[in-house]
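If you are new to this repository, start here. Below is one unmodified record pulled from the training split, so you can see the exact layout before writing a loader.
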Amino acid sequence: MPRRPRPDLTEPLFDASVAPDAPLAARMRPRTLEEFVGQPHLVGDDGALTRVVKPGHLPSMVLWGPPGSGKTTLARLLADRAGGSWRQLSAVTSGVADVRALVAEAKALREAGGRTVAFIDELHRFNKSQQDALLPHVEDGTISLIGATTENPYYEINSPLLSRMRVYRLEPLDTDALGAIVDRALTDAERGLGGAALLTEDGRAALLDLAGGDARQALNVLQSAAVTVGDGDIGAEQVAEAAQQRLLAYDRVGDQHYEAASAFIKSMRGNDPDAALYWLASMVAAGEDPTFIARRIVIAASEDVGNADPRALQIAVAAMHATEMIGLPEAQYALAQAAAYVASAPKSNRAGAAYFAALAEVQEKGRLPVPLHLRPSSHRRLAREQGYGKGYLYPHDYADADVDQEYLPDELVGRVFYEPSDEGLELKIGERLQRLRRLRLEARRRGKG
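And here is the target side for that same chain:
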């Protein structure tokens, strides 16, 4: 078998040149770490990555952060500092065959005395087998892997692979960092607009607000606005026109999805209908699946309102059915009604807490035998023979539709799981249960006497 040609070790890490007609965001990509703006906790003078990444040394890592925070650019610059041969894959378009080809090339380069920096964008989109294919080569140092992801890596990346990588969190760019990037793009004569466009004070404020910490979005809108106005000034109106609409930072399967849903649920639980409606609106406006929202309302109605107001569950389920039947935009009314009701209703989690207390007993002791008098009618004769008198006593034959009769297994007699709160209807439920429990206790004492 012919020997594979050795790679060219003089090959540059990556091609930093960008076509003059490339998007402004691509042209303004930093070429050195000194040009990189933002993330001081990582690349500042005492940043975590500044301390770790040295010439000849680059640990495998995950760069986790929102779009436009600089993940790809930072990966390139760190790889450049460490040295090696840059290879890039996208998890969206690559498969196991691409990973194997990259590894084969990396092994050949390693034999020749070189090293490979493998950058995989959207690493979380690799499935388990694709991630597993990387594992041994990260472990033995064949490649230094840098993965970029907008998703929480602790949820989306296999634990064995993640344990061999360091996770670094990138934050959305703050206003100062984003402003510095925009200002550079406006004045840079080589790669930017070279002073051809003027951004007014209100236009600058509108642009930074709209971008929401996303440098790529800010530069794309700036470029569109500059093309639209020509030699004119770019004000807030031109920024809004170039953007068409506010682009919400939201991923229906990512961190923003879970964060917004968490805020929505906690607002309903916390008796704040205003906040609940805000987070509801933010999810709907960002394109969230309305049935996902409806299910969250149903869960909150049962978990957090419970028997303090049983109508909450009815309204939530009705809203879910309405959403499934009519869809958006009309379903917004049903979702808003249900969310506002659940957020405003009295709260009790006692039913759920009682269930999980009972579940803990089952998990600890196993499923205990059903008392004979509670078994089907065919067992009644056996129940009488075992000392249960007439067997099962029909509650409706007694006052208050209640009779002193044990329903728990013998081992749990007297155990109380459900203790209603003093909220809403559950207050009345609690008063009734207290009365019935007291009467049963008195009846048992009389029986013993």
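Two things worth knowing about this chain: Residues 1-15, 246-250 have pLDDT under 50 and may be disordered. The longest helix spans residues 424-448.
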